[in-house]
Amino acid sequence: MDYDPIQSLETAGYVGREASFLYLVAVHSGFFLRRQYHRFTQREGGRMATRFLTKAHRHRHVQVIECGQRRHIYHLTAKPVYAALGLPGSQHRRIKSDAYIKSRLMVLDFILDHIDADILVTEAAKVDFFTTQCGVKLELLPQSYVGRPLYFSDAFPILVSRIGVPRFTFFDEGQVSDSRFERFLEQYQPLFSALGASELIYLADTEANVRRAKAAFERCFPVDRIRGVTPLTPMGVDHFLKFLRARQFFEAEGGGVLTSELEVLREGETLYTTLEHQALYAAWKTGATNAAKIRERFLQSPLRLTFTTTVLPYSYPIYTLRQDGQSEEGNETHQQTPQETPAMEA
User: Fold this and answer.
1) pTM for this prediction
2) Which of 233, 239, 284, 297 is deepest in the core (most CB within 10 A)?
3) Using one digit for the tens of pLDDT, what is the confidence trace for 168-221?
4) Please, are residues 94 and 328 in contact by the beta-carbon 8 Å criterion?
5) How many CA atoms lie within 13 A of 108 on its CB side?
6) Residue 31's closest CA among 63, 5, 59?
7) Where in the chain are all domains bearing CATH 1.10.10?
8) What are 307's strand-pairing partners?
């Protein structure tokens, strides 16, 4: 940007801390809670937040989602605000499903926990970082198609450490299965493999989902991959090489093999039965292939990907959100007008 987006909000009557918080909301979430404004300003108590919310309501920049039990979610909806911040096409201003809203509230909590971090937010910034600074080919980036290739469509923030190590994030807002996380891992696997060191941070608000995510991650990136365990080498590449040597010696010596080699032969006769196995053995006997080539074929380089999990210690009122109205995605929500908005949130 060739202008200060915070200053553009200050001209609308917001003081610096209010403008800065709205900027964070617009960029990262679109939704916020009163307690998150308290965290950002590092002030407890109601007056400051009430003045901020009253001002935002007066300008019709936010709407309120009533969650029951005097709890509310604030939604930054004003198109002029997003345009002033250089985000005229942001989807954050549109009402979404409960799950989406909760995930964005979780994202905002994470951002507030890492307020001084170097964060890649936009699609353009992420593509530029990985292709220009990391040297990753464009086709290896996670993508989907919405009229055009759309990269990093999950829109989760990516942190970059001081030494340039990317730290990916995945937010589980309470999924009942691992399918979405598994699709995420599958989509990101080419990028993970192309990078040197990297980290994936899985964030949820329950221990049960964290345990389930760890199991899903281990299924997708099993430790056995570094031993060359594949459908063709189910006991690892070393076992297959022992079988090739034992079979060649057995045939050359007319059956004179050690007991340990005989055991490998018996196991291999039931495991290595495909045409590809036969072709590899034929190439082994003629010297067209060797142990180094076979290792290169089946051994997979271990990922330098660190997987960490975090249980966010915050509560979200999202599951009491059902009231009167209808969201874009078919989920019921009730949005109050500024005049209906209560002054306090429990």
Assistant:
1) 0.73
2) 233
3) 999 999 887 889 999 999 999 889 988 888 999 999 999 999 999 999 998 888
4) yes
5) 33
6) 63
7) 1-97+327-346
8) 200
